[in-house]
Every structure is written in C-alpha cells, then in structure tokens.
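Student:
Attend to each token:
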Amino acid sequence: MTPFFRKQIILTVCLAPVLLGCAEGRKGEKAEVSGIVKLDGAPVADAQIRFMPYDNPDLGNAFCRTNTNGEFTIKPDANDNNWLKPGKYKVLISKIAPIEVKAMGAPEVNLLPAQYNLQDKTPLIAELKNGDNKLGPFDLVKNKK
C-alpha cells in the first residue's frame, strides 16, 4: 500500500462521521408556530416577531416577519434554521421604520409600543408544544395617554 493511498483511507475514515452528521440535520422535537399580529384590531404588516426562551436558553430562538395580512409562520427551513423546541417563550414584536433626518445616519423608530419589544416588559408569552402550534392573535394596544 502506497503512503498516498494510506493517507486517503485515513482521511476518508476520519471525515465520514462528520459528513454523515451534517447530512442528518437536527433531531428531536420541533415546534412550528403560526398566528397573526394586530394593533388596535388592525393587522400589522412587516412586523418582526421573535420567540425568545422564557427561562431555558436550550430551547433556541427564532424570528420572522408578518405578511401583508399580519400573519406569520415560524418553522425550520431546509437547513434547520429557525428551530424551536417545545417550551415556554417570551414573544417580542417590533416594526422598525427609518425616519428622515437631514444629518448623518438613518435613525430608526419602532412603530409599535416599546413594551412589546422588551424582554423584561413584554406581556406576550407562548407555550409551544411539539408539532404545529396555531396561536390566537397577538392583540397589541397603543399606549394610552
């Protein structure tokens, strides 16, 4: 056996488990979630929804944007991104828009009440189970003055 051939065999044997592991994707329970976001009864288009673990960081986190009807769906993609495990989550919702300024930079403003985008203040909690989770609407309310 030539040294070159021996090196090829060793390399193949060492890399096979790594390549097979990558091809399998993630295993375990997956929570897919869908719902709608409303502000004062009207659907909110192009809002960002983030699911953050309530108290267990091993659950993972995921995000997406609402469509023109305020609807959203979070599920793992072909590369197993946006993976949520069953468990309890804080739900953060924002809608960011640039504001016009005459100076440098393009500052942004959240068009939704700030409480819905702050981890320590959000009143929005979701308990996800394995499989499909169809949530009731997230009914946001403008801050009253």
Notes: The longest strand covers residues 31-39. Residues 14-25 have pLDDT under 50 and may be disordered. The helical segments are 3-24.
